[in-house]
Design a protein that fits this description.
This protein is mainly beta. The chain contains 3 helices and 29 strands. The strands form 7 sheets. Strands 1, 2, 27, 28 and 29 form a 5-stranded mixed beta sheet that branches. β4 and β5 form a beta hairpin. The radius of gyration is 20 Å and the shape is globular. It comes from Symbiodinium natans. GO terms for molecular function: promoter-specific chromatin binding.
């Protein structure tokens, strides 16, 4: 029952546990700051510590989604997968800073072959790991499998594809009758994934043989899927602005539990946030009615059963057209980070007394579609979507210098 939440707890402890306290700002420090940088800060604006450390413009095609992976497999680097509107995926190695490696000094990593243990000679601290070529149209979602040796992609081209991350080889292709906005593995059975198509059908598919185990018809197209930390409840966000809660009644079956009408705009992203700091578990949801919503999850009775979703707060995000993504940083009392169509990355503190005061990051020149924070909570990736200016930034936080 608690297998997934136990796994999340182990990740927290592996990366140094939860952070608490007020005024610490988003992300953990991972860059050495100078005295001049410290003097240049405005009092109280902790996000001025965030610095863009890398900008990439790999192609002219808009970025659609990004995600980090293999964070517990290599001490020297993490992977960042970036997907595009033209159907290509590029996987990058993002090398850790000295401070990030120092945070992991007491952690055990699997034996590495040392092939990629050193950053590129140009001191960019980022390198192309592999390119995944095969989709013919825009990629709608990407995620790593449980072992993180494969990447899964869904696309407007009506397919779900499995790729070898190291070789870039396409391993499996599952086709559908219509575009596939999103998919997800069943936590208790990683040999089964659920995929949504634009005909408002959810399919449970066996990875090994491609057999469709179950079909569920929804009222309208599902555009976002996320399991909670029990692994038993699937949150499905729809084009019409509702969230369906489905229960994994066994390792191969989903059944509808209840529905919440959330917004007038379609749901484009759902992030699940486990309970922390006295706050209940919650969802961070982007909807295309210019808002992002923090939704509290109520469990029990009976214990462990998700019975209700209730809106805690809504914040303004410029969002009418694009499939904007959000993510969560556990720094301090937690932060909602969202893309926006006004060219800024929006950062909202979630702690009590914060008043959800938005702090923008202004690196991009065009709308920001995708954002992601690594598990170590030291690196924020943000990507924009307007051709031909498509770019993405990696931002890190300044730490204390010797001069301080």
């Amino acid at each position: 029952m608690r297998a997934i939440s136990s796994a999340i707890d182990s990740v927290k402890s592996w990366f140094g546990g939860e952070r608490s306290g007020k005024g610490t700002g988003v992300l953990r420090p991972s860059l050495k700051g100078t005295k001049a940088m410290k003097q240049a800060r405005k009092e109280g604006d902790t996000n001025l510590d965030l610095r863009p450390v890398q900008e990439l413009q790999d192609s002219d095609s808009a970025v659609t989604c990004i995600c980090f992976g293999q964070e517990r497999l290599h001490k020297a680097y993490v992977l960042l997968a970036t997907a595009s509107k033209d159907g290509t995926v590029v996987v990058y190695r993002c090398y850790r800073t000295e401070m990030e490696i120092a945070m992991l000094s007491d952690q055990d990593f699997p034996p590495d072959d040392n092939t990629y243990s050193s950053p590129p000679a140009d001191h960019s601290n980022i390198a192309v790991h592999s390119r995944l070529v095969g989709h013919s149209r825009a990629i709608t979602s990407i995620f790593f499998n449980l072992l993180e040796d494969q990447l899964v992609t869904t696309s407007i081209d009506k397919s779900v594809r499995f790729w070898s991350i190291d070789s870039g080889e396409m391993l499996k292709v599952f086709t559908d009758s219509s575009p596939v906005p999103v998919a997800a593995f069943l936590p208790f059975n990683p040999q089964v994934f659920v995929a949504a198509n634009s005909n408002a059908v959810l399919r449970l598919v066996n990875v090994q043989n491609g057999m469709v185990l179950q079909k569920l018809k929804v009222e309208t197209e599902v555009r976002a899927l996320k399991f909670d930390d029990t692994g038993l409840f699937l949150l499905a966000g729809t084009k019409s602005g509702s969230i369906h809660v489905l229960e994994a009644s066994d390792a191969n079956t989903l059944r509808f539990k209840f529905k919440v009408n959330l917004a007038r705009g379609g749901v484009t992203c759902i992030t699940f946030v486990p309970a922390a700091g006295g706050q209940p578990p919650c969802l961070l949801v982007n909807t295309s009615d210019c808002s992002a919503t923090i939704i509290d999850c109520t469990y029990g009775p009976p214990s462990g059963v998700l019975n209700n979703l209730s809106v805690r707060h809504r914040v303004r995000v410029a969002h009418e057209l694009l499939p904007l993504k959000n993510c969560y940083s556990p720094s301090g009392q937690g932060y909602l980070i969202s893309g926006s169509e006004n060219k800024d990355v929006h950062i909202y503190p979630l702690g009590k007394g914060s008043n959800y005061k938005m702090q923008p990051l202004k690196h991009h020149q065009v709308p920001v579609v995708a954002v992601s924070v690594n598990m170590q909570d030291t690196l924020l990736a943000s990507a924009d979507s307007l051709q031909p200016y498509s770019a993405w930034f990696l931002s890190k936080k300044l730490g204390r210098s010797e001069a301080d």
